[in-house]
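Appendix B. Chain record.
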Amino acid sequence: MASSILMFICLVVITMVEKGVCNDLREICVGEETALNCDQLDHATKNHSYLELVWIVTDLKNPGDTKLISYCGKDPNNCSLLSSLNESCFAQRIQVRTLSRGSIYVRQLWKNDALSFSCRLFLQGDKRPLITSVNHLTVTCLSLSTGQDVNLSQASGENRISSETVKDKWWYILQGNGGEKKMAYCNGTKCSSILCSEYKTRMEINGLSLILKKVQLADEGLRVQCKIWRKNDAAPLLFNVLLKHVSANPRTGQSLSFYQRRWSSLSPLIPPL
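Structure tokens predicted for this chain:
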């Protein structure tokens, strides 16, 4: 039964991505545990139509990479993680543990990693499952103190990309309405000055790195993105940083938070390129 379910799931996921269903991404902090629930499970168990459910993960950049995470049989409170996950391309990218009522806890370990998590709820007498999907994009989340300087290139991991392969690089401030403000442009050898007038005294270019100087309380919630186009590669690489929390207690001599250093030490800065 499990093998036939997996075959069906792979076809469904690939079709969803090709049709663009997976464009709505929810930003998740690297290393932050998130609970995922299977919608309509309560209704299915109350009317005795529940049969079984599975959770799967799919790489949104490579939709052919799909793997079963967990399986729940007749009792949705008795679910098991599948060992095959540890032998897949997701083994170093996610940590998963089961929860009651068919739910799972997921922790994503790679920066700038776009994954889709889907619950397939199978009902008695129905061949097609009910589907609950959520699409995650991991971002680097920083918890800082006022007065600190932050090397955004180091925090985002974009400085791990060899400058010899870089054709164009843009830095943006991402706005809540979906807009973006251009901050700076770089090629493989040099960068422009800060382009956004309101940040000319707050940000600076140091070599090929972007520095935010003297963090302020008002910077909390600031979202910065670096977009890199490499030579001989049409698709850009995206590197995102969120200033999740700014404390009023300054700590001099630190540019990265404990939160960011903690999760950087647990996982690769960026997926293999």
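Further analysis of this model is presented in Appendix C.
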